[in-house]
Specification:
Helices cover 72% and strands 0% of the residues. By secondary structure, the chain is mainly alpha-helical.
């Protein structure tokens, strides 16, 4: 009989709990990346032409900006949760006329395309993190200002009430 009081199952509880928490963290990260990708694609009217990618300074970049834009657009189109998303993207690359003579891009395996998409998503994630930290630096701290304003306003009201 399976019960929570059974020592066989209760001894496995911590291990199972850790696995569940890891799975939830992974799911939350993927959902966050999907939201950031959607936000990035929606930020421009024509993503295949206008999407700007902020590349970190790296030694050698073998993919062109056009190829990276195409990968992100296709990833957004199919969704990150699709089982065969990278096989579909590979098929699209072979059929897309712009890449007709791009042998490097056409010869990439689905695993290589997945690695490149993960790199691009990491770049988008870092870009968002830096944007958030820059916004936080520009905003004044609300607690100090509002408490000062509250005290000043209270004193002002007290002063006016003396005259009326």
């Amino acid at each position: 009989m399976r019960t929570l009081n059974n020592p066989r199952y209760s001894s496995e509880y911590p291990r199972i709990k850790v696995r569940i928490e890891e799975g939830e963290a992974k799911r939350n990260k993927r959902e966050n990346l999907e939201m950031l990708l959607q936000k990035k694609i929606a930020s421009v009217r024509y993503p295949m032409q206008e999407l700007e990618l902020n590349y970190p300074t790296t030694k050698g970049k073998v993919y062109s900006e056009e190829e990276d834009r195409y990968l992100l657009c296709r990833l957004y189109h199919y969704g990150m949760q699709a089982d065969d998303v990278y096989e579909r993207i590979k098929k699209d690359i072979t059929e897309f006329p712009v890449f007709r003579f791009d042998w490097f891009f056409k010869s990439r395996s689905p695993q290589e395309l997945q690695r490149r998409c993960n790199t691009l998503l990491g770049m988008i994630e870092k870009e968002e993190e830096t944007r958030v930290t820059e916004e936080a630096k520009l905003k004044p701290t609300k607690g100090k200002v509002s408490s000062f304003a509250r005290v000043y306003f209270h004193d002002f009201i007290s002063l006016i009430s003396l005259f009326f």
